[in-house]
Design a protein that fits this description.
mainly alpha; 434 Repressor (Amino-terminal Domain); two-stranded antiparallel sheet; 5 helices
């Protein structure tokens, strides 16, 4: 699964640490998500979507 988290974060001018603090997770978690090494829980995916005023489907792309 790929995602657009890095692009959305940069649009808002946030650092990984800023995003992590807003979501109450570690910077390492954000880094792993952005590098497609960790798929977030449904709750975290929904919180990311809400923060970016987006949908889960727009942020995360399933590989075929």
């Amino acid at each position: 699964m790929n995602n657009n988290i890095r692009e959305e974060r940069k649009k808002l001018g946030l650092r990984q640490e800023d995003l992590a603090n807003a979501l109450n997770v570690t910077r390492q978690t954000i880094n792993a998500i952005e590098n497609n090494k960790y798929n977030p829980t449904l709750e975290l995916a929904m919180r990311l979507a809400r923060l970016f005023n987006s949908t889960v489907e727009e942020l995360f792309i399933l590989d075929d």
